[in-house]
Fold this protein.
Amino acid sequence: MKNLLLIDCYDSFTDILAQTLENTGLCRVEICPYDALNPLQFPFYDAFVLSPGPGLPYEYPQIFAALQQLKDRPVLGICMGHQILGLACGGRLQHLSRVNHGQTKHLKQLQKDVLFKDISQNTAIGLYHSWVLKDLPTQLSVLACSEDNNVMMIRHENYPWVGFQFHPESYMTNEGVNLLSNWIKMI
């Protein structure tokens, strides 16, 4: 049983995400508000999850600082957490011309990856964002995109960091629990 720290950016999905992670039967989750992060607690956790959140990633400097201490630790970023990982590595954000709040799209897998074990090609995913990552550095691999070619999943080549732009805990994401389970099994 893995111990996860879910870093909460005060998002309405955080509790649902924690419950979905625990429903895998593979982990226990503790929620910590981003502004109460204490790096002295980091050794007590096997992995870290960056929650979705309101606003823009730049409004959460404590998380960028924490990532400097988590380069060798598994981190999963969800929605804005995914964007934080991309920005921390040198990518940039682009505002979408059409907001994707409460939209369902399909996930196009671009590479073979253990995260896709038993996941259908073109599985439905739930989106709640208006910004996407662009101009990613070479150390970030794009694992999947949406049907409109926006980056939906990334993996760092040197750090055990993974990002999902979509919400795996959403009822619109058909195989979200399986994707989360596959990530936890990698830890």
